[in-house]
Amino acid sequence: MSLLTVGSVAFDALETPFGKTDKIIGGAATYITLSASYFTKDNNLVAVVGDDFPQTMIDDLNQHGINTEGLEIRVGEKTFFWSGKYHNDMNTRDTVEVQLNVMEDFDPKIPESYQDCTYLMLGNTAPSIQQMVIERLNERPKLIVLDTMNLWIEIANPDLMSLLKLVDVLVVNDEEARQLTREYSLVKAAAKIQTMGPKTVIIKKGEHGALLFSEGKTFFAPALPLEEVFDPTGAGDTFAGGFIGYLAQTDDISFDNMKRAIIYGSAMASFCVEKFGAERIMNLTKEEINQRVNEFVTLSAFGL
């Protein structure tokens, strides 16, 4: 089934205890679509970049089967840029520099060929932009998944609350879930979010796995213990891409299949952190993905 992802395609400059990079490809929509490309072949992107964005990077996306018809290139303008530095624990980071550039007035344009999308993934952007995307589609997709962040909870809460009424799945981390609901218990937080609109809530806990709440049921997916985390940038978006990509491939949004999608998303995220930026998820094989998924199965399997 067709997947539409809307979000940022960007330049990142990263520094971790393992090294640093100059400008490399980044952005929420980049990680989501690359991750989803290993599952669905109808993988469509809406984003905006400046004319400083190299054609070679667009070619890399195309080679993964990502349809970039909806990638707007603005002449005379610059691509969104983010620079960050990670602390030694790799769980905290400092934003060194942000240049909004073309993202400052992002106006998502949905090509006619995307209008029949079955699955919609709203990558992290302003809630007003995310709602604009839903309103510009001729028909409501089968499933709408939303990613947001603490910034929008703080400065655009009314817009976010309006948007939540329109989506099926919300993906947030534990800190954001608590901030949004003022509940410390993640079980209570998920229940409160479900009263806001989304019937399914995914709460990411970083190196401690992810929780799925839906249909009155709960599922916990562990994170794979890794010897080293090289760069966690984009891991959450890669998780979301694996999740929505697997659902689009199987076209099954039951709770049991969402559990499987969570594991595939977790597996993709575990690859992402192994190298800088999107480098690792650019060059995966089906065999590697299946083996990694089996590691998750082995990690959590037990008998009674």
UniProtKB/TrEMBL annotation:
Gene Ontology, cellular component aspect: cytosol
Ranges in coiled-coil conformation: none
Kinase recorded as keyword: yes
Keyword hit for Kinase: yes
Transmembrane segments: none
Highest taxon of source: Bacteria
Record keywords, A-Z: Kinase, Transferase
Carbohydrate kinase PfkB domain: residues covered: 21-279
Gene Ontology terms for molecular function: kinase activity
Name of this protein: Sugar kinase
